[in-house]
Amino acid sequence: MQIVKTIGELRPIVQKWRREGLSVGLVPTMGYLHEGHKSLILRAVSENDRVVVSDFVNPTQFGVNEDLSTYPRDLERDAAVCEEAGAALIFHPEPEEMYFPDNCTFVDMDSLTKGLCGKTRPTHFRGVCTVVSKLFHIVTPDRAYFGQKDAQQLAVIRRMVRDLNFGITIVGCPIVREEDGLAMSSRNAYLNEGERKAALILHKSLMLGEGMLKAGERDAAKVREAILGNLGTEPLARADYVELVDAETLEPVEKVERPILAAIAVYIGKTRLIDNFTFAAEK
Ligand code: PAF
What we know:
Helix content is 38%, strand content 20%. By secondary structure, the chain is α/β, with parallel strands linked by helices. It binds pantoate.
């Protein structure tokens, strides 16, 4: 497995694969890889001849008071995970390689990015769309793999690929959880022992909501209130949002009559965690 740091090194490698008729999968990450990332890489390896993992903490998707400088990084460990999962190459650029100092071009979206995480992170998806577009142009993959844990990001990227005719297949992969239910996230590394226990409230509250829907409840407000109420029982938790939205448009729903996404963002101490489930009512 190779680790390359520049676009100039990466392009000829991918071009050679293309000349050999090989298919290419891309797994975009910000590094500090966990089992969730590994599941994306394994899926990509099973569906493509060569897999590129990008490992880049993208500054443009962090707000001014967010955790860009403290975001966990460990290239050596990431390389071991990628190698074991069968990736062919890690693309690990410096920020200066990805952005010119006078960069003034961004990819943005009118809808889908305003609600959910977009409410408190108004510039986040502009940064995500911009870096993912750049990675798509640099790597030119056939398929790209994203986790369902970042459900809004997945919906936004699907829409961007459709609207901008990228011609890349976007593969969404299931959330990977710790044994006790906590969704895997690089940010779990911020949690101390007490917070780690408290963080279980996210999955428990979502399961409560999902249980109500499975039992036939169709009033989105009631499900939302129940999830919020359950989150409120954990002293270390502070809900940023709890929303039931249309799974494709991400517009809030009143009645659960079509596939929905139930998404939450919750502060556990200073750490903001997200989780979700999707639900399709049987007709
Ligand atoms: O999901 C992430 O880790 C990031 O948002 C992504 C897609 C790699 C873009 O920086």
